[in-house]
Amino acid sequence: MAGQIEAKLAELGITLPRPMQPIANYVPYVVTGHLAVISGQLPAVDGKVAVTGKLSWGVSVEQGQEAARLCFINLLVHLKAACMGDLDRVRRVVRLGGYIAAPAEFTQHAQVMNGASNLAVAVFGESGRHARTTIGVPSLPADAAVEVEGMFEIS
């Protein structure tokens, strides 16, 4: 029987994909105490980065928001594994960190990261409201436009 969070994902039309394997020497998540820390996730679909390039240099803010949303979906894949398959164990989205590939003159990082933040709230309700850092970077792995990492309180 699917839990409340799985039901919410279905209502939002989201099917969690197969997890993408790490592309370097790290693990996808660490659980310590009541925290699950999920490594940065790229906007991948079917194992391939779906949104590449830099914001304002060929990637629109709307495409960036979709990339951030995809990153959050990929965070959920690893979060589910960290919760032994039960996303109802998530008590709170504590923090999201967003990295936006963009030139120095780009200033709409926060709007891009809202793609992930808005989905966190849509999925987890009030406990999806979180602290956040969003920064611009010159490049990301695999030429991804966005990368998002997360920290979650779990039971």
From TrEMBL:
Domain Endoribonuclease L-PSP/chorismate mutase-like: 6-144
One Pfam short name: YjgF_endoribonc
Stored InterPro entries: Endoribo_LPSP/chorism_mut-like, RutC-like_sf
PANTHER family (UniProt xref): ENDORIBONUCLEASE L-PSP_CHORISMATE MUTASE-LIKE DOMAIN-CONTAINING PROTEIN, ENDORIBONUCLEASE-RELATED
Identification of the protein by name: Endoribonuclease L-PSP/chorismate mutase-like domain-containing protein
Lineage: Bacteria, Pseudomonadati, Pseudomonadota, Alphaproteobacteria, Acetobacterales
